[in-house]
Design brief:
The complex is a heterodimer of chains A (90) and B (392). Chain A has a single domain, classed as Immunoglobulin-like. Chain A is elongated, with a radius of gyration of 14 Å. In chain A, strands 1-2-6-5-4-3 form a 6-stranded antiparallel β-sheet, with no helix packed on it. In chain A, strand 3 and strand 4 form a beta hairpin. Chain A has 90 residues and is an alpha+beta fold. In chain B, helix 2 packs antiparallel against helix 4. In chain B, strands 11-9-15-23-22 form a 5-stranded antiparallel β-sheet, covered by helices on one side. In chain B, strands 2-3-1-4 form a 4-stranded antiparallel β-sheet. In chain B, 25% of the residues lie in helices and 47% in strands. The longest helix of chain B is centred in the last third of the chain and has 19 residues. The mean pLDDT of chain B is 86. The chains are: A alpha+beta (90), B alpha+beta (392). The interface between A and B is medium-sized, with 16 and 17 residues. Chain B: This is Similar to stage IV sporulation protein.
Chain lengths: 90, 392
Amino acid sequence: MKTKSYKIKEKISDALELPKDITLDIPKVTILGKDSITVENHKGIISYNDNQIRINTTCGILTILGEGLTIKSIIQEEIIIIGKISNIGY
Amino acid sequence: MFILRLWNYFCGYAIIIVKGIRIERFINLAVVNGIYLWDIEKIDYTTIKAKINIKDFFKLRSIVRKTDSNIQIIEKCGMPFKIKIMKRRKWFFLGLGALLVFIYILSSYIWMIEIEGLARIDEQAIIDNLSLEGLKVGAKKNKINKREIENRMLIRMPDLTWMGIQIKGTKAFITVVEKKPEPQLIDRDEPCDIIASKDGVIDKILVLNGDGMVKDGDTVKKGQILVSGTIIRDNISERYVHSMAEVHARTWYEDVEEIPYRQIKYKKTGRTFRTYSMEIINRKLERNKKIPFENYNKSSREIYLFNFGSYVFPIKLIITRYEELVSVTKIIDEEEAKAICEKRLNARIKLQIPENAIVLNNRIEYFTNDNSLIGKIYVEVMEDIGVKVKID
């Protein structure tokens, strides 16, 4: 998956200490306590269920498990998910 | 986010239900096309519930076609819809507005005057005088100059020592302090006579200063000089002194009472009748109803319908209650009549006798005629009848 241009970009941002989520479009996942997740730089929803949400990102599919999950808000840059979260993984 | 929500509320939003197999694709396409969806909930495998801006709703059409899904509005929320409802109920809101304006106008007038601190002065007298100064029920609040009215009222009513006016809401609270009555004292240096305040027989006279004109046992008339402050002696010119004396005299009080043997008493039957009337700004609205009773007791109660603490509005409900009475005739015998007569006479005579008088003798005589008993009371008392009067 890692292309040549991606590697160059990574090296530059490492060298210049630029935040990777901006330069490389890497997802930034913020978990607030037990019941709120914000995913920035997502690439769309793959599947959506009451107890499982799968979100496409540049570094794989992010899976969120839980109960009563709802999408509080969704725009191109970020998704806010609320509900009882139990598990997060790639 | 909150700002966005607020914006959406102002623009109006809809709660929609989307049905389709590829529901995730629907959401992704919406996001890519810049359609903002929020509060997305999965209802079942193929159905979601979401909120969407009204303007964005029409953009959904192409996505719906692409994803082969079904869309349905279940609720419309936000300002535009609220306004729509308001427009439909235009007259209701206009009326509400008119009422608020009406209440605002009413609250700039005075609708109630409460007076505090009165003991001897008649309340009506103060109300009358206040209305002459411009403070009355229905007067405009901002036209009232409290300090000036207070000052002018003190000039108008010499019995008042102080007056305070406070306006709270639509009520005017008036606090008054009355002048204490000063006993008419005559200065010790001023020459004076002592005269009799009522008819009587002198029991004991003790002259401390001045010339005594009467002796013990003399009968005196009201106004007669008892002790003279004008001293006349041979060979010396007239001298005037301040007389002082203690004059104890026997005086009499009497009263008459007639008690008929046929006593008519009124008893409540328990039947009541009520009439209601309204009073709006001192104008009475009432229906004339015939009172179904021949004899009745009338009592009325006034209720301010709009009474919010210090804001009282001049709309009153007056409930008048009539209680039916029946007359019961009772024949009493002489003994009972005497008892009633004695009770009444004693009660009445007590009011006439001054407090510091000593009762010497109390006698009641009864006379009877065909249908009533007449009682006469004589009370003999010992009291000080001397009153000082200035010599001109």
